[in-house]
Amino acid sequence: MVTLTGNTIYLRALEPDDLEFIYRLENNEAIWEVSNTQTPYSRFLIRQYLENAHQDIYEAKQLRLAICKKNSFDAIGLIDLFDFDPVNNRAGVGIIIQDTEERNKGIGTEALQLLIDYAFSRLQLHQLYANIDSGNVASVSLFTNFGFELIGQKKDWIKKNNNYHDEGLYQLIRQQ
């Protein structure tokens, strides 16, 4: 896959060297609620995942890309297309920037723009969607700034700190 390059970042395919980054990210309990993770991942499982990362989106039904700053190979985040449905031309989108000090710097905005452009122009998708905790103001802002619209609210969908939170379903339909 060709790297997708923006002004300050680029997106690239996962590499075996990403094992430790993904291990730290997937085992960070602070973000488990975003990824619906309940248990830690071993390096063994992540290594197996990376060994199968060569599958294309049509086979794996997902595409996970590393977000990297220009002039660096090291990943600072991940952006995903998941539940890829080539029959109905749609996919879900997820994004995470690992370190909080790297957030709110436009990295997520640039990564999401690159992924939207790729999904609509290269994959010819008709629509993208995102599931976002209603309390995640930063993610709601990021996605709505790209035209994602709230089309439904799942009541008491996410349990966090023994409280239930709503989750919004946001959708972006490609303009013809």
Automatic annotation (TrEMBL):
<dbReference type="Pfam" id="PF13302">
    <property type="entry name" value="Acetyltransf_3"/>
</dbReference>
<keyword id="KW-0808">Transferase</keyword>
<dbReference type="GO" id="GO:0016746">
    <property type="term" value="F:acyltransferase activity"/>
</dbReference>
<dbReference type="InterPro" id="IPR016181">
    <property type="entry name" value="Acyl_CoA_acyltransferase"/>
</dbReference>
<dbReference type="InterPro" id="IPR000182">
    <property type="entry name" value="GNAT_dom"/>
</dbReference>
<keyword id="KW-0012">Acyltransferase</keyword>
<protein>
    <submittedName>
        <fullName>GNAT family N-acetyltransferase</fullName>
        <ecNumber>2.3.-.-</ecNumber>
    </submittedName>
</protein>
<feature type="domain" description="N-acetyltransferase">
    <location>
        <begin position="9"/>
        <end position="175"/>
    </location>
</feature>
